[in-house]
Amino acid sequence: MVVFLWCFAWFALPLSRVLKRICLYIVLGMICLTSCKKEKQDTRLVTPWGEVQTDSIPVSDSFTLRDIQTNGEMIMLTLSGPETYYDYHGKGMGAQFLLCEKFAQSLGVSLRVELCKDTLEMIWKLGRGEADVIAYMLPDSLMKTLPDSILGSDSLKFCGVEGRWLVQSNNTELADALNQWYKPNMLEDIKQEEHRLLTTASVKRHVYSPFLNRSTGVISKYDDLFRKYAPLARWDWRLMAAQCYQESCFDPQARSWAGARGLMQIMPGTAAHLGLAMSDIHTPEPNISAAARYLQELSSTFSDIPNVTERQNFVLAAYNGGAMHVRDAMALTRKNGGNPQRWGDVARNMLLLREPAGYNDPVVKHGYMRANETVDYVDRIRARYAQYRGVPMGKLPSAGGSISPVAPRKAKKKYKYHV
């Protein structure tokens, strides 16, 4: 329409060249303003769910308690560590996380964790409205230095002398809800529950013998399934059997508190990824088949490890502790002058991920790890695999003592193994 009026004025009206030039500038200005306004109106946000909506919330705005409940999610900031947050077999752990998770559940919302490198980053992100709460024991000495945008020393006293959680200063409803919800014994109860989960109640299973019939060389009644599916990962079936015994003691009904199930202790998320229905997760053949495909996938992930035996150790460690933690240990090994493709070197550096100097190192991307469990996991499977090959197992090592592969001896019995 604007262009039409300009054309009419230029050709139809008896105006001077100067007036026509002025009209041209006015029209061009109107076009620019219109396009800028349209561009501003069309600003959109693509969400992780694929929806496109108008981006009308500035970064500095914070969600009120009602906004959090309507949105269905609360975002917490914290640091990686054994007392705060860490990934354990695919589940978040750490007393501060578990406490915040229970509070989120009381609100009827999910909890998302954002890990920061230090307290300054947490405070900066909270001040910008990128999260709802800092779930970390911040000391009282820090309260005097907080910016006005963050709710400080007069609120969120529920953690007592150990420290305080923080929210934005305009989110008093959230602070009040936290203070009313928290009871003095909650933090200690959470720590005791976590300790119980990580010890005796980790896996519920019937403990079967590691040999069904030693005299005839039968390891378990699932040997045919190991022979059938271990080649998918290019593994000796006896190594897979040794891993299975470490996971479930050959009990197909075994389940852990974290949700892992079946002979190979497959997590629900991993089962979905592998196409294993939950209705089949306790059935031996689908469970072993899915585990073999997962081992094959992990073998591809660590295809940069040229030695086959070494790669198996890395795959076992990733199966137990997560590939991202294994890569962190490899990066730390490289930095400390070791060989990141040799499991013995990586295992020693993996144990450093239990200490702040290790999991806070700049080359470490995924934080704290209960590394002694993963190192011990690999060692025990290797020891039992040696036993299954006819090599005496001897005493099982403690966490951190890695066993070197032992060449198999010739079998004296008249049967032979099939690989």
What does this structure look like?
It is a single chain. The protein is α+β, with helices and mostly antiparallel strands. It is 45% helix and 10% strand. It is built from 16 helices and eleven strands. The protein has helices spanning 2-11, 17-41, 65-71, 95-107, 119-127, 172-181, 186-197, 223-229, 237-248, 268-274, 284-301, 308-321, 323-335, 343-350, 356-359, 371-388, and strands at 44-46, 52-54, 73-79, 86-88, 91-93, 110-116, 133-138, 150-151, 164-168, 203-204, 255-256. It has a five-stranded mixed beta sheet with strand order 6-3-7-9-8, sandwiched between helices. The protein has a two-stranded antiparallel ribbon with strand order 1-2. The protein has a two-stranded antiparallel ribbon with strand order 4-5. Strand 4 (86-88) and strand 5 (91-93) form a beta hairpin. Helix 1 (2-11) runs antiparallel to helix 2, helix 4 (95-107) crosses helix 7 and helix 9 (237-248) packs across helix 16 (371-388). The radius of gyration is 30 Å and the shape is elongated.
